[in-house]
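Notes, p. 3: input format for complexes.
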Amino acid sequence: MTDQAHVTESGDPGTPDIPGKPTSASRTTLSHIMTHNDTNLLGTVHGGVIMKLVDDAAGAVAGRHSGGPAVTASMDEMVFLEPVRVGDLVHVKAQVNWTGRTSMEVGVRVLAERWNESTAATQVGSAYLVFAAVDADGKPRVVPPVAPESERDKRRYQEAQIRRTHRLARREAIRELRARRIADGIVD
Ligand SMILES: CC(C)(COP(=O)(O)OP(=O)(O)OC[C@H]1O[C@@H](n2cnc3c(N)ncnc32)[C@H](O)[C@@H]1OP(=O)(O)O)[C@@H](O)C(=O)NCCC(=O)NCCS
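Output follows (188 residues plus coenzyme A):
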């Protein structure tokens, strides 16, 4: 796909009047050395510290891609694979996987370079976040479609569509269940 490509395979209404942006245009890495301030009671790095870095990196990507402010709408499938320790150099790599009309899924991988080992960086976590681009009033605004470049980008796009379908279906199913319970006069 080119810089000007439009994504038509999503099945979503899309944004035909806005040129596409390649994945590489907004891909970002945020790096941070972990300190004693970042630890939990076990002495390893607190999961919330990693989640903040994930949200920061994903937010930077969403802002870059959409060309303006974007807010976190959801974060899911946050996975912690291995503990991170004080002194480790953590790299948080984020990219836009998929775009809808006003929202973007950002995929994030977290890697750690161990301070006391001369080995390659280890993957220690990953997450998927949905950001909504917003205008000055905080209302959703249209985003450029992402144009996946590599085969890996294309796979991530397709997988993101599956997650999007599941998120919407889950939200709808829960809404229906709650409406049914209210209609049946059940109070909880
Ligand atoms: C996210 C927010 C802008 C959505 O506003 P809204 O009035 O519900 O608008 P919409 O329903 O049109 O949603 C906008 C887009 O976000 C998506 N979206 C909204 N909530 C979502 C959720 N929970 N999960 C996934 N996507 C979501 C919608 O599908 C839509 O995407 P699309 O246009 O590509 O189809 C609004 O809920 C908000 O401002 N939330 C607070 C954000 C914030 O403060 N984040 C920081 C947390 S500390």
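Residues 151-183 form the longest helix (33 residues).
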